[in-house]
């Protein structure tokens, strides 16, 4: 028996995952009872909460995360499509049509034991209008004789039927291969990348104290380099121990050679800063607490957020901050750092060593936020409640609706909202703020994009 063999495994949440672009969407459509939810459970490996377990979320249109052969996609289960349905059934049918509109690929499920019905033929017309790629699934083909009969489903005009048994697993690998072929450039997942030391950029304008802070950690450096076997570290990087953990500080060569430091132009320094941020996973931006937050500080902070790296802001030279300075600094922080309230802030002194031990926990926290993945079902449960409580404001008699959301990637967390139309910038900011309130993301930027249905 091939039951269970090669079935899609759900990603473990703590595994490093990198992927680009929004996750493609597969909608599962068909008459009630043809086996759609059985098929969806097969595809997601039954690892996620079954829908009935989630209060407030009906079976109407529920997205799940799935992956096959290293490619991730979202599966949307639909309750069942009937052309002449009344009331609640009609609402479910309408949702199935919506799911088709937002999908990249449609799995049209037919009961192979029954063969095609009038309702199936009506559904085919609806699918034709949508002009989406459709894969015809002949479910309940539990044995070879039903499988043979399934060939009659060619008559539906959707091409070759895929005979499968969602219940027993038969034929499912071929179906998943066909799904991947039909998906638009599905993002690749690179999993389990070898976990060497985390890469940190120590950046800030000249004289904020970067070299001084680096020197604080450099005592153990030689020993650490020898003990980390098999890691390739760029010669311009430093491996240092901070808080009992080994970190790779990228592009610290310039901080060590004090001669080279003086000779660089500001333009060159800024390129170097950008390259270090690019190479890092998390950036420590040092500010001189004894001086006003400057435009140059702001440019460096912007580089970090635009590159999508985790961020810790270190207010260095805290030993120079008296009550008077503290008063003005608080005002500056309110004014100048308003756009990044999520950044982790530390008040430290490279000179006295104050709060330097807080750096490693701050880096770990920022990186954890940066790599957080929220399961799709949980995300949508939260989103459904949010848009119910605070719908999008009405504009010109119409209000766009958010149909559902998926997390397209991590590092940093990226979300895609599927909507009936473009969202107001203000409402999008509201969703981001609420998303942070719910799921945290302290120390990490997050990205939200909107995909209005065509
Ligand atoms: P949905 O309404 O389309 O989501 O259908 P369900 O997934 O709830 O399945 C309806 C019924 O068909 C259930 O009793 C399933 O156990 C059964 N079923 C689903 N897939 C198969 C299959 O491959 N073979 C057989 N024999 N029964 C199946
Ligand atoms: P870099 O250009 O960012 O690498 O800055 P340096 O590490 O060379 O520091 C610039 C100056 O600030 C030096 O004179 C340091 O001694 C001084 N400095 C660095 N950190 C501190 C600190 O925490 N407190 C005080 N008072 N001075 C500091």
From TrEMBL:
It comes from Micromonospora vulcania. This is GTPase Der. InterPro entries: AAA+_ATPase (IPR003593), G_ENGA (IPR031166), GTP-bd (IPR006073), GTPase_Der (IPR016484), KH_dom-like (IPR032859), KH_dom-like_a/b (IPR015946), P-loop_NTPase (IPR027417), Small_GTP-bd (IPR005225). It comes from the Bacteria. GTPase that plays an essential role in the late steps of ribosome biogenesis. GTP 1 binds at residues 30-37, 77-81, 139-142. HAMAP family: GTPase_Der. Residues 24-187, 198-371 form the EngA-type G domain. Associates with the 50S ribosomal subunit. The keyword Repeat applies. Belongs to the TRAFAC class TrmE-Era-EngA-EngB-Septin-like GTPase superfamily. EngA (Der) GTPase family. GTP 2 binds at residues 204-211, 251-255, 316-319. PROSITE patterns: G_ENGA. The keyword Glycoprotein does not apply.
